[in-house]
Amino acid sequence: MSTEDANTPEGGMYPDVEASNVDNVRVEDEMEQSYIDYAMSVIAGRALPDVRDGLKPVHRRILYSMEYEDITSSSGHRKSSSVVGTAMGNWHPHGDKAIYDALVRMAQDFSMRYPLVDGQGNFGSLDGDPPAAMRYTEARMSPLAEEMLADIDKDTVDWQSSYDDRLNEPEVLPAGFPNLLVNGSSGIAVGMSTNIPPHNLGEVVDAAVELIENPEATVADLMEHVEGPDFPTGGKVVGRNAIAKAYETGRGKLTVRGITELNEDEGRVIITEMPYQVDKADLIEKIADLVGDGKVEGVRDIRDESDRDGVRVVVELKRGASPELVRNRLFEHTRLEKTFGVINLALVDGQPRVLSLREMLDEYLDHRSEVVRRRSAHELDEAEERAHVLEGRLVAIDNAEDVVDLIRGSDSRGDAKTGLRDEYGISERQAEHVVRMQLGSLTSLERDDVEEEHAELEERIERLEEILGDEGELMEVVRDELLEIKDRYADERRTRIEEGGDEVTREDLVPEKRVLVVMTRDGYAKRMEMEEFETQKRGGKGIIGADLKEGDALTSAFVADNHDFLLCFTNHGNAYWLKTYEIPEAGRTARGRSVVNLIDLDDGERVTATLPVDSFDEDRCFVMVTRNGYVKRVCASEFSNPRSTGIIATSLEDGDELVGVELSDGEGCAVVGTRDGMTICFAEGDAREMGRSARGVRAVELEEGDAVADVTTIDLPKGDEHLFTVTSDGYAKRTPLSEYKCQGRAGKGLVDIKTGDDEGRVALDRVKGDEEVVVASEDGQVVRTRVDEVSEIGRNTQGVILMRLEDGDEVADVATFGTSEDEGER
């Protein structure tokens, strides 16, 4: 009988001894749970980036492998196969091709806005050429990648075991900058995908700083800093509304276009920048196919003249073909225009979430503050440990001879340490350090060095304790480190952001045309075409320019282009933005529309000064003066981001208000005039640039009852220009600028014009002989005349009649402007 037969029970059946360990489950339930487990493994372990450092595991492991092997930006390049091998053997148990593909992308300057790998060799091209094999290419970390790993050895992040439990790896990198937004990410998981566009480092840092300084900031506030995606290949994004929606909801569709130049004379369409992630060779092939199929007509030849300096694809046209029409056909039929679908999906606490712009920055700042907190605690422990050791060292130096004798007389090192603890009351750690000291460390010179180091450590400990004890100080460290990275690595924006696309915006329908804008004391405003006011001789009564309601009076009039920004300054010290075309156009006899319907003014707030602005360049500044004689300069760029709720423009004392604002380059002189006819001229540099919330400094010393009326600026040297002065009773004069010497600010100034018994000057401006002037009275009368109609006379004179006024009427405001369309100026 066989062994099997001997062990077989009667009936030939074995007892089912394991039946109690078997669970009966439904097949569909098991499949569902297994698929969910698989999906979450792919989502968390491979396909989606972590919101904190913006990296997927493979990218994180590649960078950490370089850190582990000390392949930094200051070391030599290492074979890519070595980096891939280290990552695969130690931390990433997947195929080497997948790892190398990830490394290659991190080195491509046309894929990453800020490459994290510095590659040497063939890493592919914009034409879709594949990279060379990993045995031929070399790589090392880029300097910016080192910022991702900075302080990783200071207990700043949590660690986990590698797949084989031999080593540890970081769960996340310290991430010195918001990499998820800066470099973006894309990936397809199970049942979901992510597609986050890259952004400009400087803009993202500014938005993060805004969130630190203003924790209540909205997405709209952050968009004042983050204009939109910034792709490494440039191009342009068409449609700001789509960007706003994507930032607000975490999802959106952006229209991305390449940049083209049209040459009508030579009949060319030249492509100079490509949309993001578009293969240039495929695009050229597609254009050729379209020409062959007759879908794009008029093309004679296509040449790729691209080189290392940039993209240049020349589409030569046949004679008579329209470059604009051909370009539009290319937008329609090729990927020269494409849709970028934004899905801001990232892992938050291990779970996938779609995030708004604010939420992405919030999560990053939470991570970064934790990194700084843990780093500070680690450095504090090290500093306290070192200070403790130095204190024992000082004891040994102070008692050098006795310490040497005690150690020499001890039978062992342990007895020596015990003796030191008993004799001098030092700790075990201090005693251990003392017995290991060399005799040369007991000199008096050594004591000076130890005391100096100990004092520095005490300061360091105090600072670290301050950071750990005050959340505000900790966030200040985060802010300063972000700004430092911005200073070191930020560059200019590459991608342009444009309005509209094929949609026709209101601005597109408004012609660029110079208009006269008037505002009243009760807050009504309108714009009128300049053609409604014919040029006439000075001294006339003018024609009606506004139909005012009873009790109202016209307060300001200025010339602007329809597309200019209007900065409206109020008696509360706030500034509001309007486009000129937003003010309703109306005839001379119309009243206009209330300003409160155009800008969001508070109760009791009214516009006291308005300035048309065509740009907010950083090299220009606003010169502001108040009725009580204060002046300040503010960089124009501080007003470059419109807010519907306005911003603080200046601080004002009770009873004071802004009466004049000028846009200047800051290199000339400011001329401040008072209502009683005094004028002071001083270098603009005497009033240093200040923040928007500052009050300013004294511009002029006012006599009792006098007040500042207006301000203008003059260039140096003064040349043959004139100061144009107008008083409320209708008199005006031109005086050579050479008669106004520059002096220090805060003086009384010089007599400019005799104002008589009426309240004095309304306005002054710098003019040339070929300019025109519009004078508006409080009752709504308007006179348009040439500046050279007004006599050139010296200071301390009354001038000539510019406008004849009815009894009780006064000049309200004056606007001067060039006779050519490109010169309009207040």
From TrEMBL:
- Sequence ranges assigned to domain Topo IIA-type catalytic in this UniProt record: 48-509
Q: Which residues form a coiled coil?
A: 373-400, 447-474
SMART domains, per database record: TOP4c
What is one Gene Ontology biological process annotated in the Swiss-Prot or TrEMBL record? DNA-templated DNA replication
Pfam families with a match to the protein in the record: DNA_gyraseA_C, DNA_topoisoIV
| Gene Ontology cellular component terms for the protein in this record | chromosome; cytoplasm; DNA topoisomerase type II (double strand cut, ATP-hydrolyzing) complex
Q: Which reaction does it catalyse?
A: ATP-dependent breakage, passage and rejoining of double-stranded DNA
Q: Which InterPro entries match?
A: GyrA, GyrA/parC_rep, Gyrase/topoIV_suA_C, Topo_IIA-like_dom_sf, Topo_IIA_A/C_ab, Topo_IIA_A_a_sf, Topo_IIA_dom_A, Type_II_DNA_Topoisomerases
Q: What is its main location?
A: cytoplasm
Broadest EC class assigned to this enzyme: isomerase
Q: Under which EC number(s) is this enzyme classified?
A: 5.6.2.2
Q: Which GO terms describe its molecular function?
A: ATP binding; DNA binding; DNA topoisomerase type II (double strand cut, ATP-hydrolyzing) activity
Report the locations given in the UniProt record: Cytoplasm
What's in the keyword line of the UniProt record? Answer: ATP-binding, Coiled coil, Cytoplasm, DNA-binding, Isomerase, Nucleotide-binding, Topoisomerase
**Annotated motif GyrA-box, positions:** 536-542
Query: How is this protein organized at the quaternary level?
Result: Heterotetramer, composed of two GyrA and two GyrB chains. In the heterotetramer, GyrA contains the active site tyrosine that forms a transient covalent intermediate with DNA, while GyrB binds cofactors and catalyzes ATP hydrolysis. Heterotetramer composed of ParC and ParE.
Q: Which family does it belong to?
A: Belongs to the type II topoisomerase GyrA/ParC subunit family.
Q: What's this protein's name?
A: DNA gyrase subunit A
User: What organism does the UniProt record list as the source?
Assistant: Halorutilus salinus
Q: Which gene encodes it?
A: gyrA
